Amino acid sequence: MVLAGVALVTASCGRVPGTGATIETDYAKSLRVGLAYDIGGRGDQSFNDAAADGLDEVRRSLGLLQIKEFEAQPGEPLSSKQQRLQTLAENGYSPVIAVGYAYSDAVRTVAPRYPHTKFAIIDDRAASGPNVANLLFAEEQGSFLVGAAAAMKSKTGDVGFVGGVQSPLIKKFEAGYRQGVKYMNPKAKVRVAYLTRPPDLTGFDNPAKARQAAKAMYDGGADVVYQAAGASGAGVFQAAKDAGRWAIGVDSDQAKTADPAVRDLILTSMIKRVDVAVYDYIAALMDGTVASGPSVYDLKLGGVDYSSTGGHIKDIQPKLEQLKQEIIIGKIKVSPG
């Protein structure tokens, strides 16, 4: 098995959970895996759930029995994140996987104290060390594709973006989306709203505020709104339902995971295969090929993509596939910011 990413560029794709790869060893059954979720935890229908899907597939196909999960709370101090990781390490969990860049400082503090514990952090490259792996994604590439879809499906030439927290990570989603929209329609208007700014991370868990932000966009003339807002995205979907307009999901195929009442308003979703990254990392640890440092999951490696559930983009999918291949071969350059 090979860990997909920049460290091993010969890999053509990440391991896709559910493809039947198994590791039948006593080591697999004795491994203790700890997962620390960001705000929203399991059930956010987005980023955290994608990580949970990877863990569930590890549990099912690799035979892991010892798994511990914790969840961040809105407004908690940095010390809580540090304590969460430290508790896992002290109780023999290795690897300890931190879900989200909010754990960056905590990983930087805790990992050096436990040099024999493996740590991984998703969406952050600042936390580094010989026992730290950084699982990263080319969010701008997937966002370019859904931006192109928004432009092609918009009847008003007016689209929107709702970000949970105005952070460098979420700005990558906005940047790619804006580029995709403008590539297809240079005259299009792109409305942008962020729910909070760091250190306030509650923008990822405030559906009411997201609903209000999206409503303002729809009322102003937007007919497609893309959300990169974690659990807050449910509010954007509800606003789309209220307005009878399109919304675009993120991280998971949200036309399958969101409230059934709003699924028919989800034009497409920007798929971010956090599940593959989690699965890859644990499987690589088991077979001794895991590496510290950054691994980037991009379009070429299948780390990001767009969804077609619902058939709403069937008419434009050939164009999206063309754009996808042009990004992969470098004909189209997508800037992360």
UniProtKB/TrEMBL annotation:
<dbReference type="InterPro" id="IPR003760">
    <property type="entry name" value="PnrA-like"/>
</dbReference>
<dbReference type="InterPro" id="IPR028082">
    <property type="entry name" value="Peripla_BP_I"/>
</dbReference>
<comment type="similarity">
    <text>Belongs to the BMP lipoprotein family.</text>
</comment>
<dbReference type="InterPro" id="IPR050957">
    <property type="entry name" value="BMP_lipoprotein"/>
</dbReference>
<dbReference type="GO" id="GO:0005886">
    <property type="term" value="C:plasma membrane"/>
</dbReference>
<dbReference type="Pfam" id="PF02608">
    <property type="entry name" value="Bmp"/>
</dbReference>
<keyword id="KW-0732">Signal</keyword>
<keyword id="KW-1003">Cell membrane</keyword>
<feature type="domain" description="ABC transporter substrate-binding protein PnrA-like">
    <location>
        <begin position="39"/>
        <end position="334"/>
    </location>
</feature>
<keyword id="KW-0449">Lipoprotein</keyword>
<protein>
    <submittedName>
        <fullName>BMP family ABC transporter substrate-binding protein</fullName>
    </submittedName>
</protein>
<keyword id="KW-0472">Membrane</keyword>
